[in-house]
């Protein structure tokens, strides 16, 4: 009996060491990748998976500032990759999708407080149209601060992998031109509405003149990755956005991203019971 216990303990130790070695390899092999944080709403009113409370968002931004993260823009990341330049130590990109009014009221003052850059992907037809979304005056003020970059989230948030080729082009090209006219700057990046994309859509995005496009897939943006399906780190998907969850998703993306993908595949295949045993923060 003692021999079997010893063998079992040795087996468990070997498994633990193997897991630790794999985790170490995954983390250190991703040292040239960039975590692209993905937010939506920042407020204390809505209790849904897309909303992070204001105090939680501030705690997360304070953590980035105090821990020496260097916030860059998608443009700076792509330029560094294409020109063979070295990225700063601990690079990170902060992004928001849709362009909610609370990005101005709640997130912007916090970003100013910690002097952090961010990129907001705007649904161009929604700006100054719906009360829950930014106005052009707010957008102009944020852009003039030098901290906020604006890019495209299409004209009206259509799911582009299911629209006609004509409408898809209208959403891509129309939003790019509208934003460039309003903001007097070049629009080079797109965030896919609903995170949906296919090969044909990627080619249209490239044809429309974008340098890159972002999904909502959990993972790091990597130089070797297709620049038209760049991964991000979603800071949504639950109603408990604690600082601990934020740290786990930020620091251990190389470990948790493959697990999150497996979880999605199990759920898509109807294996809900098995999906419960796949840990993802």
UniProtKB/TrEMBL annotation:
Pfam family, one: Polysacc_deac_1
Entry keyword set: Signal
InterPro entries in the record: Glyco_hydro/deAcase_b/a-brl, NODB_dom, Polysacch_Deacetylase
Cell compartment(s), UniProt: Secreted
Record's protein name: Putative polysaccharide deacetylase
UniProt entry tagged with the keyword Signal: yes
Gene Ontology cellular component list: extracellular region
Keyword RNA-binding annotated: no
CDD domains reported in the protein's UniProt record: CE4_NodB_like_5s_6s
One record GO biological process: carbohydrate metabolic process
GO molecular function annotation: hydrolase activity, acting on carbon-nitrogen (but not peptide) bonds
Domain NodB homology: 90-281
Coarse class of the protein's main subcellular location: secreted
Originating species: Selenomonas ruminantium subsp. lactilytica (strain NBRC 103574 / TAM6421)
